[in-house]
């Protein structure tokens, strides 16, 4: 199934299966799942996934490749992932620009040092993944709360430079998570608008938008457990203006409200996409 640039999707969560299956046609344009959580799942849950992927385009967002890690990539898992993507006709597969393993799975997304050495290491692993999956992938800019110190004798590199360098070296695309841009900008004291402007628009395959928790004025936590904040909606509108409209996913992982509430946010994505396509200024939006 084709996935137009002007499309708005929802994360496929098991707690929402019944509501998603009963949703009217056109309620959302696509669904996104983590193949790590669905590979090998059969029975009632597997049948529900098959039904939904038959009715709606499916994108996939991986959780456990650990692109920035040092342990060898799991060839068996990559093979199973490729078969999953092929079976469900997945056109867009993405993973996190992070590491998540160290003598086992950490179940968290750890930042990668912003160094030339890390660029070469991660890019080589991304190319290996693309070869194994037989498709170009996208990598997502992640939220992080403590940056690696700059090693002595190395040239300083900021996050935007690092992301762009990885994309160029690996020959992959970018899943631009707008909420992560905002969270990192607040937590690390940089300008989110300047960061957006430095992203290579021709590499952006899709966007993510989500809610976060306001721990303090200068500390935001990327939770995916709340409605999208007004500042993040504004940043999404700016991303559309700067780089163009792309498929955009509303992420919500817990504190799940009724589907009708989530569809109101999906509709807001569509409103911003229509406004960007028509060149209409949206003004400030509030969650």
Characterize the structure shown:
The chain is of the alpha/beta class and 287 residues long. 40% of the residues lie in helices and 18% in strands. The chain has helices at 17-22, 43-55, 75-87, 116-133, 159-170, 178-188, 192-198, 230-243, 259-278; strands at 8-11, 30-33, 58-61, 93-96, 99-101, 105-110, 138-140, 173-177, 204-210, 213-216, 219-221, 248-251. The strands form three sheets. It has an eight-stranded parallel barrel. Strand 3, helix 3 (75-87) and strand 4 (93-96) form a beta-alpha-beta unit. Helix 8 (230-243) runs parallel beside helix 9. It is globular and about 60 Å long. The two termini are 32 Å apart. The model is unreliable at 282-287 (pLDDT under 50).
What's the structural blueprint in terms of helices and strands?
Blueprint: E1 8-11, H1 17-22, E2 30-33, H2 43-55, E3 58-61, H3 75-87, E4 93-96, E5 99-101, E6 105-110, H4 116-133, E7 138-140, H5 159-170, E8 173-177, H6 178-188, H7 192-198, E9 204-210, E10 213-216, E11 219-221, H8 230-243, E12 248-251, H9 259-278
Helix pairs in contact: 4-5, 7-8, 8-9
Entry summary:
It is built from nine helices and twelve strands.
């Amino acid at each position: 199934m084709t996935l137009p640039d002007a499309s708005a999707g929802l994360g496929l969560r098991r707690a929402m299966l019944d509501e998603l299956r009963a949703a009217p046609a056109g309620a959302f344009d696509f669904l996104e799942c983590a193949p790590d959580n669905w590979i090998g799942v059969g029975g009632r849950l597997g049948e529900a996934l098959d039904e939904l992927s038959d009715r709606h385009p499916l994108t996939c967002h991986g959780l456990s490749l650990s692109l920035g890690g040092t342990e060898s990539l799991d060839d068996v898992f990559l093979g199973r992932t490729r078969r999953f993507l092929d079976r469900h006709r997945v056109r867009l597969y993405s993973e996190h620009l992070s590491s998540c393993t160290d003598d086992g799975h950490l179940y968290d997304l750890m930042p990668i040092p912003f160094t030339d050495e890390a660029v070469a290491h991660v890019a080589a692993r991304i190319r290996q993944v693309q070869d194994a999956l037989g498709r170009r992938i996208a990598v997502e800019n992640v939220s992080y709360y403590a940056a690696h110190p700059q090693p002595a004798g190395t040239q300083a590199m900021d996050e935007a430079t690092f992301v762009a360098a990885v994309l160029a070296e690996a020959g992959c695309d970018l899943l631009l998570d707008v909420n992560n841009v905002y969270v990192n900008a607040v937590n690390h004291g940089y300008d989110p608008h300047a960061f957006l402007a430095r992203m290579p628009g021709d590499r952006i395959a899709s966007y993510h938008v989500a809610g976060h928790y306001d721990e303090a004025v200068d500390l935001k936590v990327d939770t995916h457990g709340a409605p999208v904040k007004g500042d993040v909606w504004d940043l999404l509108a700016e991303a559309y203006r700067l780089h163009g409209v792309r498929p955009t996913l509303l992420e919500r992982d817990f504190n799940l409200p009724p589907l009708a509430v989530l569809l109101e946010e999906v509709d807001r994505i569509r409103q911003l996409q229509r406004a960007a396509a028509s060149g209409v200024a949206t003004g400030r939006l509030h969650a």
